Amino acid sequence: MEQQLLDQNLSSPENTETETRDLGFGAVVTRASRQRLLNHIPSALSRICSLRFDIRKLSVIEKVF
Fold first, then answer.
1. Distance (Å, whole) CA 65 – CA 55
2. How far is 39 from 1, CA to CA, in rounded Å?
3. Which residue of 5, 15, 16, 44 is surrounded by the most CB atoms within 10 Å?
4. 28, 20 contact by CB (below 8 A)
């Protein structure tokens, strides 16, 4: 459902390559940069999860020694 809304929003006529959006804290993004950021979310989440797992393994090793 969220993906459908995102696809509709990105493909709507008012969203052009040059359209910008103010994020409210001094940052402005274009539609293209917004899409690139969204594309990186799954891999970033995967990296975070693997780092958390590595940290847990290290803490277990420290407890053993």
1. 16
2. 17
3. 15
4. yes
Residues whose CB falls within 8 Å of the CB of residue 35, separated by 6 or more in sequence, listed in order: 10
* Single-letter amino acid code for the residue at 31: R
Phi-psi region of 21 (alpha: psi -120 to 50; beta: other; left: phi over 0): beta
Predicted confidence (pLDDT) per residue in 16-49, tens digit: 455 666 666 666 667 777 788 888 888 888 888 8
Contacts of 16 (CB under 8 A, 6+ apart): 31
Helix, coil or strand: residue 1: coil
Per the CB < 8 A criterion, the answer to whether 29 and 20 are in contact is yes
Tell me the domain boundaries of the chain: 2-64
Evaluate if pTM is beyond 0.70.
Answer: no
